[in-house]
Write a structure and sequence with these properties.
This protein has no helices and 15 strands. With 236 residues, it is an all-beta fold. The strands form five sheets. A five-stranded mixed beta sheet has the order 6-13-12-8-10, with no helix packed on it. A four-stranded antiparallel beta sheet has the order 5-7-11-9, with no helix packed on it. A two-stranded antiparallel sheet has the order 1-2. It starts with a strand and ends in a 20-residue tail after the last strand.
Length: 236
């Protein structure tokens, strides 16, 4: 057999680059030869399997075949995650996607999952979040693996990008992520919003009246509220 092929006189076994077939009485009864193609490279293999001997003209069986390499591949699903509006300096609820691989090279290695700015990923629900996580594979295959993602905005702005899954000789796969960081508006509230003191003799002080002031989402986180009275009034 030519390069890339093997022959045998037994189905399913005994394959080699050449075999010997005995004949007797100047005759060779019809003999089945089994042929297999064993390419070692991604290329075309052509040639002739020769049958020679007994003083006869060599006979050829032309063979052709093409070696093809299995392409390493990664698959992610779904291809996008939308986190919507999330308050600045808080963490969103987690969302998930899966990554699967086949025909990876080398046969054992790692797939690196990397999140863009504003996002974190983990292989464990509820913990272990980081900007990058490593997922091990073996046997050239990555079984379907769930990746958990959260959105952690630090500014009031839009955050877009891709969570990438790369490695194993495969084309990098992307999961598009979108989200918007929103800042809570600082607010002060007073209640009631008016006080009526009526008639008060000059150079005397009325009885006191009260109102309550409260605030939320104030910035900076610690500071002071200044309460200022108009002419004729004092506060405490």
């Amino acid at each position: 057999a030519p390069s890339g092929y093997q022959v045998s006189t037994t189905s399913g076994s005994g394959y080699a680059s050449s075999v010997t077939i005995a004949y007797a009485g100047s005759a060779l009864a019809a003999k089945t030869v089994y042929v297999v193609f064993k390419p070692t490279a991604a290329q075309s293999y052509t040639g002739n399997i020769t049958s020679a001997g007994g003083g006869a003209t060599t006979q050829n069986v032309a063979v052709s075949g093409t070696g093809v390499a299995l392409t390493p591949s990664l698959t992610v699903s779904p291809a996008s995650l939308a986190f919507g509006n999330v308050t600045v300096n808080t963490t969103s609820a987690e969302k998930t996607f899966t990554v699967t691989g086949s025909n990876l090279s080398p046969a054992s290695g790692n797939i690196i999952v990397t999140a863009p700015s504003g996002y974190l990923v983990s292989v464990t629900s509820g913990s272990g979040y980081a900007s990058t996580v490593t997922v091990a594979y073996s046997g050239a295959t990555l079984a379907s693996t769930t990746i958990y993602a959260v959105f952690t905005p630090t500014a009031a702005q839009s955050y877009t990008g891709n969570i990438t899954s790369a490695g194993g000789g495969a084309t990098t796969q992307n999961v598009a992520v979108t989200g918007t960081g929103i800042a809570l508006t600082p607010a002060l509230t007073v209640s009631p919003t008016s006080l009526a003191f009526g008639n008060v003799l000059i150079n005397t002080t009325s009885t006191e009246k009260t109102y309550a002031v409260s605030g939320a989402n104030l910035t900076p986180a610690s500071g002071n509220i200044t309460v200022t009275a108009p002419s004729g009034y004092e506060v405490s």
